[in-house]
Structures
1.
Amino acid sequence: MLGIIAMFCLIVDRLDFTKNIEMLIEFFDSQLIEPQAPTLDKQGIEETLKIIEDKFDLSKVVSNPVPVFIFPLNYSQRNVNMHNWPYINSITCTAINPALAEENELPDDQYILTHELGHLLVAKLSDYNTVPESFYPIFEKGFHNKRENVEAEYWPELFADTFSMAAAYNTELANTNPFMQKLFPSLSLFEQYFYNIIDEAKSDKISL
Ligand SMILES: [Zn+2]
């Protein structure tokens, strides 16, 4: 089951500003390498955001009160393909690094951008390092698994990937997502879950 996790994002404490600045400096020093492919361009970023916005009206949650910033960088990363920074509500959008590909299958950068937005969403809905309680029964039903089988550190990744599937379902992003076929029977469940939870957040039933 854990093969579903496309990549691991560094978990940071978004409230510790000094620590986060140190991590950002460390990121530039140690993570960035020469671009191994083209970075997703402005058009690709805008297209991805528009599809997700048209479906979920996501900006009302993730850009509240601070806008999401997406920075395309003409570099690749050594250990992951993109990175989100919840304390500055940002994503560094870097070029795919083929060295990180599993079984020579290059991940799609629109899919990864969608996954990173899932992390910024969970940072708004609950806490960056965990997931809303409502996600657990959706996971158990949709993934045919038990929550006890998943270690705590993997939940944000599962949430972000489930969001990526829900966002891509029945859109032009469907072909970019590597998990859609495997979990096809659960996609409408995932989509409805994110409609509900995003609507609740927009109507302030969840405190942001
Ligand atoms: Zn991630």
2.
Amino acid sequence: MEKISTGIDGLDEMLHGGFISGRPYLIVGGPGAGKTILCMQFLMDGVKNNERCLYVALEEQASQLKQDMASFGWDIQRIKLLDTMQDLASGLWAIKTAGVISKPEFTLKNLIEAMRNIYMSYKPKRVVIDSLTSIKMLYESRTEARRELLGFLNFLETTNCTTLLTSELEGPDVLMEEFLASGVIKLHLIESEGERLSAVSIQKMRGTAFDKHMRPMKITDEGITVFPNESVFG
Ligand SMILES: Nc1ncnc2c1ncn2[C@@H]1O[C@H](COP(=O)(O)OP(=O)(O)OP(=O)(O)O)[C@@H](O)[C@H]1O
Ligand SMILES: [Mg+2]
């Protein structure tokens, strides 16, 4: 099975070589845990290999994202951006790509439609969807949310792209999308003796063996570094 680098050496090591390509993966963690940075690092690794990369911005504004990522020296111009803005009052959604703006109703089906159009013309190899959290809130019942998310993940599997989806996690809950994705990577912020430590663990990864331990990580001006031979606790 072909594996694709995460863009982070230590995480590749934990995954025994990287992600199995062509599948959707979930990156979960609390606010500020590093989800967006991890995803961008994954896309920049693709850019380095001249692969076409797509970033679907569902929450953060593109202008802000460009600024944030510039602090790592990453020029995200080479990443195709699908920028969206929710207008809660009208229930409509401004979807922008390459100067064209459409305003469909805010649903997962319409997102799939917009993405399908880009896939046909652009044929990305790596895709990031950041984040699922606001989309999930569109659905009133858990059953409906689960059904729609399952449809969305099934769509992503048919695309043959390696896709990372982010999702916000607070506390010990397990999110319904964790059951649906091919793999789940969890980012942690741990308070220890007045210090905040970052760590990463792999919750699940279909089709491969992987490191079951939580490992320390650091966010610096270079992005995320994972220490696959170190332990978080003592
Ligand atoms: N240059 C840098 N050096 C060190 N840490 C940084 C740097 N830039 C950002 N950070 C840290 O990275 C974290 C933000 O990461 P990121 O935006 O990826 O989090 P996130 O999980 O996507 O958060 P959210 O849920 O708000 O979207 C912040 O806590 C910030 O302190
Ligand atoms: Mg983010």
